[in-house]
Amino acid sequence: MKRSNLxxxxxxxxxxxxxxxxxxxxxxxxxxxxTDVAVEKVSxxxxxxxxxxxxxxxxxxxxxKADQMQRALTLMTPDDLSSQKALxxxxxxxxxxxxxxxxxxxxxxxIVYTEYATYxxxxxxxxxxxxxxQIRTITTIAAYGGGKEICLSIPIRDRIFxxxxxxxxxxxINMDDIVSMLAFNTQGSGTHFSLYYENGENLTGLDFxxxxxxxxxxxxxxxxxxxxxxxxxxxxxxxxxxxxxLFSFSDSRQxxxxxxxxxxxxxxxxxxxxxxxxxxxGGIREExxxxxxxxxxxxxxxxxxxxxxxxxxxxxxxxxxxxxERKIAVRDSLTSxxxxxxxxxKEKTVDDEINSGNIRPFALVVCDLNGLKQVNDTQGHAxxxxxxxxxxxxxxxxYKHSPVYRIGGDExxxxxxxxxxDKRNELLEGLNSQIVENAxxxxxxxxxxxxxxxxxxxxxxxxFSRADKRMYERKRQLKNPG
Amino acid sequence: MxxxxxxxxxxxHTGYLEETDMNKKQKVQVWAxxxxxxxxVGTGMPACAEDAExxxxxxxxxLTLDSYVPKKDHYNFFFTYKTVxxxxxxxxxxxxxxxxxxxxxxxxxxxxxxxPEVASAEDQKNRLLSAAGNDYDVIGVDVADESxxxxxxxxxxxxxxxxxxxxxxxxxxxCKRIAYVGNTHNYTDGxxxxxxxxxxxxxxxxxxxxxxxxxAPCHEDRARGVQDIxxxxxxxxxxxxxxxxxSINLAYDLTLKxxxxxxxxxxxxxxxxxxxxxxxxxxxxTGRNIVIVxxxxxxxxxxxxxxxxxxxxxxQDCYSIGFDTLQVAVKIADDVLPGTLYPEKTExxxxxxxxxxxxxxxxxxxxxx
Lengths: 482, 369
What we know:
The complex is a heterodimer. By secondary structure, chain A is of the alpha+beta class. Chain A has a domain at 340-479: Reverse transcriptase/Diguanylate cyclase domain (Alpha-Beta Plaits, 2-Layer Sandwich). Chain A contains 12 helices and 15 strands. The radius of gyration of chain A is 58 Å and the shape is rod-shaped. Chain B is of the alpha/beta class. Chain B has 2 domains: 17-184 and 317-348, 3-Layer(aba) Sandwich (Rossmann fold), CATH 3.40.50.2300; 186-315, Rossmann fold (3-Layer(aba) Sandwich), CATH 3.40.50. Chain B contains 12 helices and 12 strands. A 6-stranded parallel beta sheet of chain B has the order 2-1-3-4-5-11, sandwiched between helices. In chain B, strand 3 (138-141), helix 5 (146-158) and strand 4 form a beta-alpha-beta unit.
């Protein structure tokens, strides 16, 4: 098989490998993209879950406190409202019962009654001047002195003290209690929590990851987001809308998630480095990717082996076919000896050897059949063909070690070299004896003439001419015996 | 207080260190404040106030009770002041912390701390007379109008009731009240604000003065201090003096009217807490270039100071006033007269702060960063 015949196979193999590789890479890219989306969703879900759980804790905390206050009011008797001393005593019992730092009752003039003091609340507690919720009101107050006072109030109905209606009661809640309750201490986990007021003020007094507690979150974020993103963030804080923001800080990407805590005006915030979940889920992804790459390599290797074997087998088949064709091309289809083309090839080879001076001694025997035309004419061409075959067989039997060529309809040439050359005369005599015998019995009659290569011969044809001439001399002898 | 109202050079900031038995820590704290003020007077206010760290010494929140051992285990006081306002809420914080510290020592202190929605000397008089019928250990008052209230206090004192004054306004000289805790230098505060304004304006220009409650000693004293200083500058003129009755809205309306009536106005002196808030709102709204100097620690005013709308503010140590008021009240209730354990007038400081101090003050007072 020629080298050019392998080329399409190799091209096909390369194309298949490229297609497989490209398809796999495309699928890998798709998988990577899908993973990124999945990671983003997981991150959002993770943060939403974290924020949601803590938000519920705060909400339940306030509900519990409000329930306690409601139960406290049911315990209030007319005697408790009979004097300021009695009221203060009642308030003290409520504080002790529920472990409250401050329980206060407020009348219609915004006078605040506590266990130890009675004072004006109008300017100190802005929520007293507003329309209070019929269920509960949670207010954060920036108190003089830098502290944050969290007030939870519920309405009071049908209670009169000192001639004035009591309108509400409230408790003050320490922010530290809420902070500890929310388990913000997640040191080492990479996840940070905090509470911010709707205006961006930190409520916990604790640093929020890399963001100092003293910094206003909205101001901080405005320096790390685009103007539109910062505006959206501020709007979401103001309107109490949960969302997220991605920003860069100290050469790392941070994901901020925020979610409102109902009724408080607070935002619970969660901050994680963007690569935190990517690193965790990314490991799985990288493992999958590595597996895919190995799979690609194995597939490509298998394809190459397959195509290699296929090419080798194709090559082997082609070589055999070629050899068969070559044999067909040089063989006479009737007698199976060499044909005219084969003889021509031999002639070229010998001429080249003569020209190069590398020629070894050789001789040619030219044979011609007598009586073939008569057989064809009288017995038909089939018998004529059989006559030719018999002649060829007889020549081959005589010259067993030399190539025999049929160069015409009834003309054969034998190329003698080696031992047949050495026995050329003996062999020719044997052939002629057989022919003489055949002539008597009606068998195949062949006229044979032999000539040896001579040093002044420049071409094989010179040897052939001499042998052909002797063949014709022999043919005449056979026609005119005696 | 500076009753005469003429001694402009008197600094009026002297404490009572050698007369008290305050613990060493408190003495150190007071000395720190005193040194700051000496710096203020000696080197000029703007230069001294440049040091933002000193803002922390303007108001103290780490006071502790002195070593005095109360004679009783329960005290009941009545305090009344001019009007419901955030300034007195700050005083209340000091009262509350002192009460908690007494409670931690096993001393129960109860009190009423009440005021009318609108400042009124008559209302205050009625409250005092009503309180006199109850069995309070001490009655304290931030005098709304010394001419009205001083006789009432004398009347109560004659009846054997222990009375004291506190916060921003003392009674008239000669009043029989036992002691006073609070600002004793309102005249000087007004004078210092006026000086800062005059220096800023280069000693010339027309100015207006906003005052708080008519007749309130603290406000009137400050207004007099302002007027005396302005009188020393021949190229300066007070074109208007208005009273906002401690109302921000009224201060705003009055300022708009002043700005309209005086297109060439250069400055505004604000003598109480509501004045600078209303004035700044009006100035911002009109876009006029007016130098505003004023009193006190209102959060909005501090933001305006930070933003350059207000030039300077006089900050009083309200927390300390409230804290020491309760300490002194306990001693008065124990019939301890002014002398070695406490002075007849417990001096409290006022510090003029400027734009560079505003951020620190907002953080200190409101946790705003």
